[in-house]
Amino acid sequence: MPNEIMPEGLWTGDYYNEGSGKDGVFDKLKEECGVFGVFGHHDAASLSYYGLHALQHRGEESAGICVADGVQFRYHRGMGLVKEVFGRELLESLQGDRSIGHVRYSTSGDSQITNAQPLVFKYRQGNLAIATNGNIVNEPALRRELEDSGSIFQTTSDTEVIAHLIARSPKNFVEAAKDALQRLVGGFAFLLMTGDKMIVASDPNGLRPLTMGRLGDAYVFASETCAMEVIGAEPVRDIAPGELLVLDADGLHEDRYTEAGRKALCAMEYIYFSRPDSDMNGSNLHSARKRMGSRMALESFVDADVVTGVPDSSISAAIGYAEQTGIPYELGLIKNKYTGRTFIQPSQELREQGVKMKLSAVRRVVEGKRVVMIDDSIVRGTTSRRIVNLLREAGATEVHVRITSPPFQNPCFYGIDTPDRRELIASSKSVDEICREINADSLSFLTPDGLISAIGGYDENSPKGGLCLACFDNEYPTQIDFGGEEKMGCSC
């Protein structure tokens, strides 16, 4: 197999979809990362374990937890899922009343234990642990500056840059962290911990989600509220753009490291990334996705017999489309969640139609039917074509594709691992051309105004409803041009 040329890049390593991320053959955007923190609870490590397990969808490559008891750090990181990295005995050894944890998304270039987080350092003021979700656009320039000044980097992670900036500062930990954060350009949610303090910070535009909760007298921080629900914590509020919280023996201190910029929470959190049972900025994700489907029906109705959603993120939107149109919603597509990685060499037919490894059409549901297929996005177009053909092979007489986001035309610089612009089908083809490319009978995308209206509940007084739509409209909320040294995607 390694010497064969596999069609459309389905097999790029020794086994099925090695290094391709959790969706493998699905042409989906790669997840970001997830962070979880606890301050002031005797069982901080176990709470972090359950919190990270709830955030597993945000990253399946590695997981880690660092705890502090006021005297020393104890930490463990490993490659794989949370349940694979941590066992009972290991968790019991992580004693402390504060912790930060991290799950990292899958990637093909830097999948190694050295990049697993939290990153832990020793410097003149003691121990320092850092976990982050996001991307620092000006990281290459900062890294080069630090290396020219003598810094030696051990990882390829963005996160190590802020550690060096803090360590080189003559100021105390909190002031050094503020100065370091002010130098960063990008989208990020940081958890930083020393022996006696924890700092929680969000980027000036709030691009990456971060929320605070309470569990008794303890404080809890997470990328999504679903991680709080699982441990019984009560969500309190989202961390504001540019905000910096300091937690120590005296409790919680609210501060800022910079003025807030234009509010610009990543729209893809609502469209695809976050779990449907999470709430984000006052809006439940399942409800928001249902409204996207309903709005899609109003903007681009098509007469059909069945509505189905591409699992899992498009199910809510498909329900909304069906409710708005009165067309029955059916499970026309079923996702196999247990394929995992396999060394078994599939047949030539399966190599050519690799989507069947992870997705099946329900023939008795779609056969002889006009089908509306709801999906959240089209990236390269390869997955959409495979799924449309899958439905046709199962007997669908028509397949009408409705995408509950605008055309994805631009790369992300704030934490989503997106392809180069030239690989994004919507950057070079019209809607009609994409429709022909994916073999659909019709194709429509949700308008930007429709998306903003459907999400709702965030900030009606901010431009674009307080959302970042740069991947759709090319209007980035931060500087992204650093003389060719800017960095895309996510390498937290």
TrEMBL record:
The EC code for this enzyme is: 2.4.2.14
Q: Which SUPFAM superfamilies match?
A: N-terminal nucleophile aminohydrolases (Ntn hydrolases), PRTase-like
Please report the stretch or stretches of sequence annotated as the Glutamine amidotransferase type-2 domain.
33-250
The first-level EC class reads transferase
Q: Which Gene3D superfamilies match?
A: 3.40.50.2020, Glutamine Phosphoribosylpyrophosphate, subunit 1, domain 1 (3.60.20.10)
Name the cofactor(s) required for activity, per the record.
Answer: [4Fe-4S] cluster; Mg(2+)
Q: Where does [4Fe-4S] cluster bind?
A: C266, C412, C468, C471
Give an example GO biological process: purine nucleobase biosynthetic process
Keyword set includes Iron-sulfur: yes
Q: Where does Mg(2+) bind?
A: S313, D375, D376
Q: How is the cofactor bound?
A: Binds 1 [4Fe-4S] cluster per subunit.
Q: Which domain of life is it from?
A: Bacteria
Q: Which residues participate directly in catalysis?
A: C33
Keywords for this entry?
4Fe-4S, Glutamine amidotransferase, Glycosyltransferase, Iron, Iron-sulfur, Magnesium, Metal-binding, Purine biosynthesis, Transferase
Q: Any idea which GO molecular function terms this record carries?
A: 4 iron, 4 sulfur cluster binding; amidophosphoribosyltransferase activity; magnesium ion binding
What does the UniProt function comment say about this protein? Answer: Catalyzes the formation of phosphoribosylamine from phosphoribosylpyrophosphate (PRPP) and glutamine.
Q: Which family does it belong to?
A: In the C-terminal section; belongs to the purine/pyrimidine phosphoribosyltransferase family.
Q: What name does UniProt use for this protein?
A: Amidophosphoribosyltransferase
Species per Swiss-Prot/TrEMBL record: Paenibacillus algicola
